[in-house]
Amino acid sequence: MHSHSIRFRLAIPADDYLAYYKGQIRDVVVRAADGRRIQFPANALQGVVSHQGIYGLFELRFDAQNKLLGLHRVGE
User: Among the four 3, 9, 44, 58, which has the fewest Cβ within 10 Å?
Assistant: First the structure.
């Protein structure tokens, strides 16, 4: 199975994350490290949130059909 990934930074305070958690915001839109504009479902954030919010360098992984495989924190 062939996959690819995209890296980007996030800085979402815990209070702001509540809007994503409650479904008030359905998609996350970020600028990737390579300059591309990336949009993905907000529910992908659930596995990376802490008490402080969501901060750091992250990587989205996709399969060959661009189906989201996962979101992982890879750095500060």
Answer: 3
